[in-house]
Specification:
Blueprint (H helix, E strand, L loop, with lengths): L1 H7 L2 H66 L9 H14 L3 E8 L4 E6 L15 H9 L2 E8 L3 E14 L2 E13 L1 H10 L7 E7 L4 E6 L2 H4 L8 H7 L6 E7 L5 E8 L6 E7 H4 L1 H47 L15 H96 L4 H28 L7 E4 H11 L6 E6 L6 E4 L1 H17 L5 E10 L3 E8 L6 H4 L17 H11 L3 E7 L3 E9 L49
Parallel strand pairs: 12-14
Antiparallel strand pairs: 1-2, 1-5, 3-4, 4-5, 6-7, 6-10, 8-9, 9-10, 11-13, 14-15, 15-17, 16-17
Helix pairs in contact: 2-9, 9-10, 10-11, 13-15
Length: about 675
């Protein structure tokens, strides 16, 4: 029942959701619309402010140029200018340059365009007089009455402007043009004025530009260092906006190459064709709009919170009887009939539902009591039956295991007795006789090669028979273990050094440098490892390698790997390889791997087998790590309480981690056992 209620959702939350939708949805739509309108108005106001700044400074630039034009006009009307007296002209011009540091050079040209006076602040030698008869400044001053242009960079850095006015002489009712007064003025003052009006802050800046998009001239900049560069100009994305407009003023958002958006405005400087450009980051320009939006959102948030609290109070009051009914249903589901909460029976549909619920709970209480009594009886009978079945099963299994063990031990003991007394002694006599015959015939020089070959065959068969007897006796023996602390790497090296490996077999060793110490019976463990190595050599008659590896594992275990690169073991054979007397070879007792498993079991370890087609077979022997603090070794044949870890062997890399019991991957031939 709680799950169903959770699936439908809490009734109070549903009431709350509807209250919020009814009250807040219209308010949110209206509020968002008002925010959008206010944002648009404030952004337009920010743009108008930017445009007014651009227009204001455009007028300032125009007045700046007009001021110097006026200075030149006044100077041209001083005494001595109209008469073209060079001495007086130099005196007046020297005073003008002292009073106005912006004048860099001043020259006087007569009516024919020949230069008569040339003064400058940075002249290092007597200047050579020039002829300006065909130059634009001279012709424009005579024809139009003034000239302003010829933007250039003084010393390749500082922007300058050329101004020219005519020298007039009044007489006979009209003015006679006697020459031209020409000056180069520095525009650095404009950059200083921009810097005062627009201090460098973030990306806020102002500039005065002349020319077109391809050949623009940066006249002034709020950062004077930008204007004093040889290749000074504004970014192309800004020049394309302000120099391609037909309007005399305008503005808007501009996206720079680094994806930053700025609010820019421009205005044309009167009579010059120059453009004043002012920009400000949109974050700063729209700061008022952002602040207003934040305030409105905070107000809306408070409205939402207050509405939410009021809605929760109303929804809680409406759903309180239903919650009491729900609690009663949950306790009833849990079988707590005596702990039902008190329910108010209101005069409405909820009250009727509560009355029906009380009647249902009384009926359920009665039926549940009957079911519980029946359940107790069934449980009692089931437990009694289960105990009897378990007891009989244990008895049968113990009897079966004991019977199998006795039969196996009896057969093995009988066979070992027969082999030990009836076969080994005749074999020893045969071997001694063959040795005597071979020695006798060798001394007399009558040993025929064919006879020698047959003697070798007899000796080999006798040796094979003895090895079979050794395997049977080893498996049937149950002598007491004689374990001792052994450095595994040294023990492996010693074993490999005396093992008679054939010439076609290579030995691959990968011993753990930590050299783990194990507590083993060296003789029994040596027999087990030799059996594994011998099996591997038998399945590689022409060429191959035997791999020996040791590894120190976590939780106090050591792994000894013995593998070959033979063809592997078939799955149907793999599960039987440790069964005594089971073999797939034409000759053999089938006790080699049984002896291995018996030895490892007696040491409290485990044997894992991995095999794969074309990759060979790997036997992993897990042994407990020697604990020097343990006073006595574990009893023979008793496994440790902790099981060896299931870890992937060091070789081969393609194999998966060893299982708890022997298992196989697809293979093509049986491994000798």
């Amino acid at each position: 029942m709680p799950e169903a209620a959770g699936g439908r959702g809490k009734l109070a939350y549903k009431f709350l959701l509807w209250f919020l939708l009814i009250s807040l949805a219209p308010m949110g739509v209206v509020g968002w619309h008002l925010i959008d309108i206010s944002q648009s108005v404030l952004k337009e106001e920010s743009l108008r402010h930017q445009q007014s700044l651009a227009v204001g400074f455009a007028e300032t630039v125009s007045n700046y140029i007009s001021t110097f034009k006026t200075v030149l006009t006044i100077a041209s009307r001083l005494e001595g200018f109209a008469t073209m007296d060079p001495v007086k002209q130099e005196r007046h011009l020297n005073r003008v340059m002292q009073q106005h540091p912006a004048f860099l050079e001043v020259s006087v040209f007569d009516a024919s365009g020949r230069e008569t006076v040339h003064m400058g602040r940075f002249l290092s030698a007597v200047p050579q007089m020039r002829n300006f008869a065909d130059e634009d400044p001279f012709r424009a001053a005579l024809d139009r009455g003034e000239y302003a242009g010829g933007l250039a960079r003084f010393q390749g850095l500082y922007p300058t402007l050329t101004l020219a006015v005519p020298i007039l002489e009044s007489g006979a009712g009209q003015a006679v043009k006697r020459g031209v007064l020409l000056a180069k003025i520095s525009l650095n003052g404009l950059s200083q004025m921009l810097r005062q009006e627009f201090p460098e802050k973030g990306r806020s800046q102002a500039a005065v530009v002349a020319g077109d998009v391809r050949d623009s001239f940066l006249v002034a900049h709020s950062n004077p260092n930008e204007a004093f560069k040889a290749d000074a100009k504004l970014p192309e994305e800004i020049l394309k906006v302000i120099l391609t407009q037909t309007a005399k003023r305008g503005g808007g958002e501009v996206e720079l190459k680094d994806s930053t958006r700025v609010l820019g405005a421009f205005a044309e400087v009167k009579d010059t064709g120059w453009i004043v450009y002012v920009q400000q980051p949109t974050e700063s320009a729209y700061l008022a709009a952002t602040q207003m939006k934040g305030q409105v959102l905070r107000v809306l948030l408070w409205v939402v919170v207050i509405t939410l609290l009021l809605s929760l109070a109303v929804a809680g009051h409406i759903t309180q009887p239903i919650r009491a009914l729900q609690q009663a249903a949950e306790r009833l589901t849990a079988g707590r009939f005596e702990d039902l909460p008190e329910m108010t029976l209101t005069n409405d549909e909820i009250g009727d539902l509560a009355q029906s619920f009380i009647q249902m709970s009384d009926s359920l209480k009665e039926k549940t009591g009957e079911l519980l009594h029946a359940k107790e009886e069934l449980t009692k009978y089931g437990r009694d039956l289960e105990r009897r079945v378990e007891s009989r099963t244990r008895e049968l299994k113990a009897a079966q295991d004991e019977l199998i063990k006795k039969e196996r031990l009896a057969a093995i003991g009988q066979m070992a007795s027969v082999v030990g007394h009836e076969i080994r002694n005749p074999l020893a006599v045969i071997n001694n006789s063959i040795f005597f015959i071979k020695t006798k015939m060798t001394k007399e020089g009558t040993l025929d090669p064919k006879v020698e070959r047959h003697i070798s065959i007899i000796q080999s068969e006798v040796k094979q028979a003895n090895s079979i007897i050794d395997e049977i006796l080893t498996y049937s023996r149950s002598r007491e273990l004689k374990p001792e602390a052994t450095k595994l790497n040294f023990w492996v090296e010693e074993l490999l050094s005396v093992y008679p490996f054939p010439a076609h077999i290579a030995v691959e060793k990968n011993l753990d440098p930590r050299d783990p110490v194990v507590y083993i019976d060296q003789d029994e463990m040596k027999q087990a490892v030799r059996n594994l190595i011998g099996n591997g050599i038998e399945v590689m008659p022409t060429q191959g390698s035997v791999r020996i590896a040791t590894a120190l594992l976590e939780k106090g275990w050591v792994r000894l790997d013995v593998g070959d690169r033979g063809p592997g073991i078939p799955p149907d054979v793999l599960e039987k390889i440790f069964t005594p007397f089971y073999t797939t070879k034409a000759r053999g007792t089938g006790l080699g791997l049984a002896v291995v498993k018996k030895v490892i079991d007696r040491h409290g370890g485990r044997v894992d087998v991995q095999t794969a087609v074309g990759q060979g077979t790997l036997f992993s022997l897990y042994l407990p790590l020697h604990d020097p603090n343990r006073k006595e070794p574990p009893a023979a044949g008793v496994r440790q309480s902790a099981q060896p870890p299931i870890t992937a062997p060091a070789q081969p890399a393609a194999r998966t981690e060893p299982p708890q019991t022997a298992r196989a991957l697809p293979a093509t031939r049986p491994q000798g056992t």
